[in-house]
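Input structure tokens:
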């Protein structure tokens, strides 16, 4: 008689335990990252090297900053000195790491409805560590130039957080924006695009064209109807991009001429791509898992506007670093990698979304002892085994990388 109530109570207890574990994991992550970023800021001598990051480089350089994200760091050090300022910088950056985990959780919750809290929480944490596959001896290096979970560049951490926030909002508005103009959404989108660009411009360079293609297809299908709503949906991107000329003048002083050592943005033909010792193998280790998942779930993938736009974003981000570079003192800094790093992180998150759905499919099939051909094609044992191998390899690679960084290894040497 009381069995249903007992079962329900058991589910609630498991959910509560999962929440406590997740909160504990976030607190631990926050604490570890705070100490890591503190050590990076003061160039602390670690077990296997001196902690290094772009934080102390920027502090040493000083001067005007193109990114609003960097301003608090200078204020912390200026007002409180390097030692305590480093603690505040660690706390500041850790908020964005933990915040990114939370946004990934919310996105996975939308993509994978009716999935238990524990599974979503676990994989949102996995996503923050996973990087492209690293196989000793075969791989060129641990830190792939496409790795989206890195720890040494603070403005990237800020851009990743804000870009995920943009995409979370975009996911919920992109399929109905032409039906009615929403002033609240317009304001929120404008603010989000402004801040993500002000932190780092790489995201919009790739996402803007992808979003534009989607919008062009939409207005063509609508035969010009709802043009005002259509136009207003794109204006926040333009508003957010107004900061780009200012950033260019800060990065390349000289009245925009790019003269002298200041340099400028220039076109190249895969300079940084072919600079890698194993460029095509690196690309395989980046795309193998996402492409595999998108093929297995091709019907769902094709029907999802969000997934298609994000995939287009990855393509444009790849073109960004393949064809764009800098001259002058910034030459060789590889600053056009940041877009493809973020979109590699994003398509991994989307692939994990498909993987979570396959976990549920596999569990259902196992429970029902259903192992027909359809199951083998999607969610069955063979396919599911391969998916697990991919996830384990990505997580292993990211965990090894993070452990080395925590011990003091220099990211550029990994």
């Amino acid at each position: 008689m009381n069995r249903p109530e007992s079962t329900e109570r058991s589910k609630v207890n498991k959910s509560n335990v999962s929440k406590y574990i997740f909160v504990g994991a976030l607190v631990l992550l926050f604490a570890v990252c705070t100490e890591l970023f503190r050590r990076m800021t003061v160039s602390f001598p670690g077990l296997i090297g001196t902690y290094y990051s772009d934080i102390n480089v920027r502090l040493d350089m000083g001067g005007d900053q193109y990114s609003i994200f960097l301003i608090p760091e200078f204020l912390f050090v200026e007002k409180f000195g390097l030692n305590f300022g480093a603690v505040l910088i660690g706390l500041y950056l850790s908020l964005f790491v933990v915040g990114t985990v939370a946004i990934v959780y919310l996105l996975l919750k939308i993509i994978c409805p009716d999935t238990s809290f524990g599974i979503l929480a676990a994989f949102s944490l996995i996503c923050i560590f996973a990087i492209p596959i690293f196989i000793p001896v075969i791989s060129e290096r641990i830190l792939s130039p496409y790795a989206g979970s890195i720890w040494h560049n603070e403005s990237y951490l800020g851009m990743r957080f804000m870009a995920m926030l943009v995409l979370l909002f975009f996911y919920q508005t992109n399929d109905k924006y032409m039906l009615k103009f929403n002033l609240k959404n317009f304001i929120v989108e404008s603010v989000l695009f402004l801040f993500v660009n002000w932190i780092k411009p790489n995201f919009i360079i790739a996402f803007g064209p992808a979003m534009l293609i989607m919008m062009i297809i939409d207005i063509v299908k609508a035969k010009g109807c709802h043009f005002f709503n259509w136009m207003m949906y794109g204006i926040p991107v333009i508003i957010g991009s107004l900061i780009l000329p200012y950033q260019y003048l800060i990065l390349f002083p000289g009245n925009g001429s790019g003269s002298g050592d200041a340099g400028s943005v220039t076109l190249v033909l895969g300079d940084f791509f072919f600079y890698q010792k194993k460029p095509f193998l690196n690309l395989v280790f980046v795309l193998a898992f996402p492409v595999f998942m998108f093929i297995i779930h091709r019907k769902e993938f094709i029907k999802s506007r969000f997934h298609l736009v994000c995939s287009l974003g990855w393509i444009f981000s790849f073109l960004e670093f393949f064809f764009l570079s800098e001259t002058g003192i910034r030459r060789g800094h590889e600053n056009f990698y940041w877009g493809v790093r973020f979109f590699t992180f994003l398509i991994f998150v989307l692939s994990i979304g498909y993987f979570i759905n396959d976990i549920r499919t596999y569990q259902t099939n196992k429970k029902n002892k259903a192992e027909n051909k359809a199951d083998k094609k999607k969610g069955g044992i063979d396919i599911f085994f391969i998916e697990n191998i991919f996830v384990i390899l990505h997580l292993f690679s990211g965990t090894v990388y993070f452990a080395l960084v925590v011990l003091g290894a220099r990211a550029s040497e990994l």
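The chain has one domain: 18-413. The beta strands are 265-267, 324-326.
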